[in-house]
Specification:
Layout (H helix, E strand, L loop, with lengths): L2 H41 L2 H8 L2 H21 L5 H25 L2 H24 L7 H22 L2 H31 L6 H30 L5
Helix pairs in contact: 1-4, 1-7, 1-8, 3-4, 4-8, 5-7, 5-8, 6-7, 7-8
């Protein structure tokens, strides 16, 4: 193997990784932009809000549809074409916008903006950490997953209890968990990008969309936890 080949192989690997992560962040940003646009449009249209949420069945469908779509996308992405995976991700982002439109009605604009900026700063810092740290974050996975399951169960229980103190604790722990997940998932995606098959564009695109969905979920949940923790309601 020549010196040129020895030097070019790491360079090529770095280029593949950079392209992969750039695609992940670009599609994640597009998904967030679509969610925000749909949420603001829906919140500013009384007629649309009434059509979506005045009927309990329709409201139930709007709230649960994103959950069903994200499960279908995560479970079946390896069997999808690149265009189908991309379309489902954008459809999911739009449905999340419908679901999150109620947030813009409940909380003040200043609270939403402050929570978004804070979430963006924390997400960015932890994502950079996940990309650059030499520490193996694999051991974080089981701990963070158990914490995630715990706050989901606690959230369901609190629907019936209606405890503001429990809600505060759930939100506080949620911020910690999704901050950790941002670093953990970023490092996991870095490894995925390093091993991405450069000659299989479809597989790479599916990986990019799955990565965008993963970080999108981390950001949205971090934003919502911060909003519940520090936000002020309109009443």
């Amino acid at each position: 193997m020549s010196r040129f080949q020895t030097v070019s192989m790491p360079r090529q690997k770095a280029e593949v990784l950079n392209a992969f992560m750039r695609g992940v962040y670009q599609w994640m940003s597009l998904g967030l932009a679509l969610t925000a646009g749909v949420a603001f449009f829906t919140a500013s249209s009384p007629a649309l809000l009434n059509a979506l949420f005045s009927n309990q069945i329709m409201a139930f469908v709007v709230m649960l549809a994103p959950f069903g779509l994200v499960i279908a996308l995560s479970a079946g992405i390896n069997k999808m074409s690149a265009s189908m995976a991309t379309g489902m991700f954008m459809a999911y982002s739009a449905l999340m916008g419908l679901s999150l439109s109620t947030v813009l009605i409940v909380y003040t604009g200043q609270s939403v903006f402050s929570a978004f900026v804070t979430a963006a700063g924390m997400f960015g810092a932890m994502s950079v950490y996940g990309m650059t740290t030499k520490k193996d974050l694999t051991s974080w996975g089981s701990f963070l997953f158990m914490g995630l399951v715990g706050i989901i169960i606690a959230s369901v229980v609190n629907i019936f209890l209606g405890s503001s103190q429990m809600s505060f604790i759930i939100s506080f722990l949620g911020v910690i968990i999704f901050t950790g997940l941002t670093a953990y998932d970023t490092q996991k995606l870095k490894v995925m990008g390093e091993t991405a098959p450069a000659n299989d564009a479809t597989a790479v695109r599916r990986g990019v969309i799955l990565g965008a969905l993963t970080l999108y979920l981390d950001f949205i949940n971090l934003f919502l936890m911060l909003l519940r923790l520090m936000g002020s309601t309109r009443d």
